[in-house]
């Protein structure tokens, strides 16, 4: 008998079983030696249609035909049909299948044709329609196969349990504090005297603060409050000195950002002198061996503990005493105690209790089905598992919540200093960006224009229209903090910041007069003065571009994929102004773009996949590598390929694994965006009465006078005037745009701007 015919017989058998009951029932039975195989589809965990669990048994033998017997029970107690089915396959073809129906010890016997060679028998359970609420368990007992009068029990180990991979229950809502929009922060240029007492820097060094503000266009200052600078050895300085500094800053019209933190109380004296770690050892971030993090001399504090309230009160007292305009929280993150995965934090008692509470609140009774543990055993795992991955996710919630607590009680802009492009999951900063007034990060370790542009693209995607502040790497961190980088490097640190419309954060290092620095200082000053003198080229800008890269922190966290895909940096000089979408803002941001490139986005929630599917059905184009969404949002393997499912339901999907080919495809689908023939990176923005094109020269050599490039049509309709602005020349210069080509453009050293006015 061929398989097709067998399948027809099988369907007939099923129908008979369900309707007429004329199958051969096994009359004997009993309870003596039953081994049980259980399939579970957990409750409150929406599963995708097609999701399936199965167990196959190898029954190869020279004998053909045979008799299959089993008993089956399922726990389904409702009237809904057609959501979950279970059945048996022989040699891969369905022999028997039925809907869940609260079967109790139902006995089934099927005789297989005598001429049929049988190699494999598979039992399975499968989701037919998307379900979200009810859970079902299906138990097979006495599954046996008889040939030539010899019966063989197939399930030999008792209580073997398989769980249908459902989705995670909905996330517990995080505290939402509306973001405060402050005009000054949107246009801030920030100066930070650091590494020395502010009083010394601002009163005793040359040039004086007033001149720095004028030369560099400074509008805000970031200060470490008294008496924390005492760690630099300035014992004799008084609080009054600090108040004098504040007065001087106010006189100059500067907004004041005060430095604080949760993890080390903003270098506060109680942390700095070790009192806190002695008095409250239970407040320290600890790895799984109980070891704390001691970077900067003392133990880092954990926001799950009383340290949160303590540092909040400390920060509130700063706001009350010194009347600032914003708070910056340094290193708002967990870390590893030893710089390896073994030292990842935090396993403190509070984190362990809070994590257990989170699991129970989010999963209800279904936690056991998901993580195969009892309630008593819910704890932060020491080794990789699904529960460990859930903990990785939860660590991000801890910092987002901590930031929300601060912002609820401090009626000022609050933002954190985070390393948002960090190489792995250790820091747990992914969820806090939407809970702060600005996104801020240090770029001291960034080398070169390509790396900075890639970081700024990511930063803008994360900031999602809020101010992105870039701490510029203008000084030689690893040589001497007061020595500036060579002019080429220092110039690019500023140019990339300006071109991506990030707010410059300038360190005092090397800005004070110093014989070794004049050329670099002049480059920095020229670029920043240009920004100050041409404010309108930086105000109310909306980035233009229809193609975006999807940045996936989940794929970094669970699959170790680079956060910035390789093709993104490769495209900086292609003429296409690529934009970015942060995975956690897909919902609000994807609609702006028509082409989305997803390189190694291995982890994606079904919710986000649904959003992408809807976007595809409205004309979007997805270019993805073949590993797209093979895992869910906490890195659990999917039983159904989302990419295949999306391909079958919604439009324009291109699967390509080669990075160069991915770049070519993006250029093809977004060709109306491409500035052809440009030797520089172009970042275009829509502004009040037209467009501005920010240009960054990535080369060490200046671009010479007389160069040209083509401007896409969409920028040129109704444009009356094209002007070229350069930091090196005082006057702007009018350009001609003949048949879409801007030509005779003056030279570009690091950076320039072209304005297209209506
Ligand atoms: Zn902790």
UniProtKB/TrEMBL annotation:
<dbReference type="Pfam" id="PF02449">
    <property type="entry name" value="Glyco_hydro_42"/>
</dbReference>
<dbReference type="InterPro" id="IPR013529">
    <property type="entry name" value="Glyco_hydro_42_N"/>
</dbReference>
<feature type="signal peptide">
    <location>
        <begin position="1"/>
        <end position="20"/>
    </location>
</feature>
<keyword id="KW-0326">Glycosidase</keyword>
<keyword id="KW-0732">Signal</keyword>
<dbReference type="InterPro" id="IPR017853">
    <property type="entry name" value="GH"/>
</dbReference>
<dbReference type="InterPro" id="IPR029062">
    <property type="entry name" value="Class_I_gatase-like"/>
</dbReference>
<feature type="domain" description="Glycoside hydrolase family 42 N-terminal">
    <location>
        <begin position="244"/>
        <end position="371"/>
    </location>
</feature>
<keyword id="KW-0378">Hydrolase</keyword>
<dbReference type="GO" id="GO:0004565">
    <property type="term" value="F:beta-galactosidase activity"/>
</dbReference>
<dbReference type="GO" id="GO:0005975">
    <property type="term" value="P:carbohydrate metabolic process"/>
</dbReference>
<dbReference type="GO" id="GO:0009341">
    <property type="term" value="C:beta-galactosidase complex"/>
</dbReference>
<protein>
    <submittedName>
        <fullName>Beta-galactosidase</fullName>
    </submittedName>
</protein>
